[in-house]
Amino acid sequence: MSYIIPRLLCSKTLKFFRFSSSLSSLKPNNDVNLCVHNRNPRNLERLRISPKPNGYFLDEPGHMFWNKLQLIVGARHITCQIVHNSGTVAVSASTKEWAINRFLYRTNDRSAYINLAKVFAQRCHEAGIIEFYVNVNREPGTKVLNFDFEII
């Protein structure tokens, strides 16, 4: 019976030694390259291993999240974004986009909020973002109530 035991010989290569009843000489094909490039740096966040950044206690919005929803309401347009805690925008949708704007009668009415929520939910699903922090004031009498948070 033989067992494969990894042994670190230097910082760049990992050699596997096969121990059996008879020791034989190793061949050069037993070298494994240890230079691994992580192509998904946010994998630890998805596995819930990475700690959430705490920020400072004096920060008003706080930073106890990985992804945060930003709903920017302008005079004529609505923009919805998912912002990572590093400050980069992961997913965005806006009524300024021609592909969304051409199907809307107005870019800031109730139907615009509902349709923007559907498009934004589809883009979040395609990007693999299933959870995010929502800090939007839902005051009665505002159009923000029409933004379907249940769809997302």
From TrEMBL:
<dbReference type="GO" id="GO:0003735">
    <property type="term" value="F:structural constituent of ribosome"/>
</dbReference>
<keyword id="KW-0496">Mitochondrion</keyword>
<dbReference type="InterPro" id="IPR057268">
    <property type="entry name" value="Ribosomal_L18"/>
</dbReference>
<protein>
    <recommendedName>
        <fullName>39S ribosomal protein L18, mitochondrial</fullName>
    </recommendedName>
</protein>
<dbReference type="InterPro" id="IPR036967">
    <property type="entry name" value="Ribosomal_uS11_sf"/>
</dbReference>
<dbReference type="GO" id="GO:0006412">
    <property type="term" value="P:translation"/>
</dbReference>
<dbReference type="GO" id="GO:1990904">
    <property type="term" value="C:ribonucleoprotein complex"/>
</dbReference>
<dbReference type="InterPro" id="IPR005484">
    <property type="entry name" value="Ribosomal_uL18_bac/plant/anim"/>
</dbReference>
<keyword id="KW-0687">Ribonucleoprotein</keyword>
<comment type="similarity">
    <text>Belongs to the universal ribosomal protein uL18 family.</text>
</comment>
<dbReference type="GO" id="GO:0005840">
    <property type="term" value="C:ribosome"/>
</dbReference>
<keyword id="KW-0689">Ribosomal protein</keyword>
<dbReference type="GO" id="GO:0008097">
    <property type="term" value="F:5S rRNA binding"/>
</dbReference>
<dbReference type="GO" id="GO:0005739">
    <property type="term" value="C:mitochondrion"/>
</dbReference>
